[in-house]
Amino acid sequence: MTRQIVKVENKLFNSFFSIFHQAQLLSTFCCALILFSPTISSAQNKNQMVRLAKIKIDSAQLEKYKAALKEGIETAVRVEPGVITLFAVYDKNDPTNVTVLEVYADVAAYKAHIETPHFKKYKSITKDMVKSLELVDVDPIAFATKPKQK
Amino acid sequence: MTRQIVKVENKLFNSFFSIFHQAQLLSTFCCALILFSPTISSAQNKNQMVRLAKIKIDSAQLEKYKAALKEGIETAVRVEPGVITLFAVYDKNDPTNVTVLEVYADVAAYKAHIETPHFKKYKSITKDMVKSLELVDVDPIAFATKPKQK
């Protein structure tokens, strides 16, 4: 009977360590991916849609425009799986010149994006703030960014 | 004796599930961080230097230029702690128009960048390929990107 108990113990310990070890490996692997991944690289996916939006803003409404754009961008990347990157900047010498770099997983993701409530809200709020809008389709050459900003 | 075996089994199963459950939770947490962490946001650091470089390339040397730029960008973000993001694209309608969005941790990081061997190599290789270069200092409005590209 004692041998039987020992056998049961061994069997249980073996499965325990085997499964625990696998879980531990997976956990370590995932953490390593977060902590040590040196760069995030896109531009690998041929289907990606990349674009520069060049936008001229009414100077009297610039602060309101920037707030609306910021909210729209952060919501889109947070809630839409197909919105990969949105990076908006304004010229220091002429803050009414805004440029947005846009990366979508594919054209379908872009089409879905412009039908979302947050995009429609952005368009509606900003329609009288935007004096002109030029959309330039581009292709990526290289995209490298640190995974965690300093 | 049977009760004893059952007790041993129960005890072992309880510790097994307790520790395995913890490992599983940790693993799930790490994976969730990777998969669902919604955005990487820079633009928080007031010291960051952000710029758009608008570059016109000799059409006959475009492919060589793109290769040199790609190598320079990937090296810089990999080896320089102060080079946060370099994103280069070319216009689909006119591939000789290249735009690079550059984010450095601060002005000192940029000054260090232009003294690196890889930057000097890029400048030397491409000096006869670049027809014009316009550097536009910008400030970020919003920067959101998925941590893992699709």
List the secondary-structure elements of chain A in sequence, H or E: HEEHEEHHE
Question: Which fold name fills CATH's third level, the topology of the largest domain in chain A?
Answer: Alpha-Beta Plaits
Look at the structure and give the CATH class of the largest domain in chain A: Alpha Beta
What level of helicity do the residues of chain A show?
40-55%
The chain pair forming the largest interface, with residue counts per chain, is:
A-B, 71 and 70 residues
Strand order in the largest sheet of chain A: 1-5-2-4-3
Structural class of chain A: alpha+beta
Round the mean pLDDT of chain A to the nearest integer and report it: 83
What's the total helix number of chain A?
4
Give a quick account of the main beta sheet of chain A: strands, pairing sense, barrel closure: 5 strands, antiparallel
Task: Give the total of beta strands of chain A.
Answer: 5
Overall radius of gyration of chain A: 25 Å
Number of domains of chain A: 2
Distance between the termini of chain A: 62 Å
Question: How would you describe this structure in keywords?
Answer:
homodimer; 150 residues; alpha+beta; Alpha-Beta Plaits; 2 domains; five-stranded antiparallel beta sheet; 4 helices; 47% helix
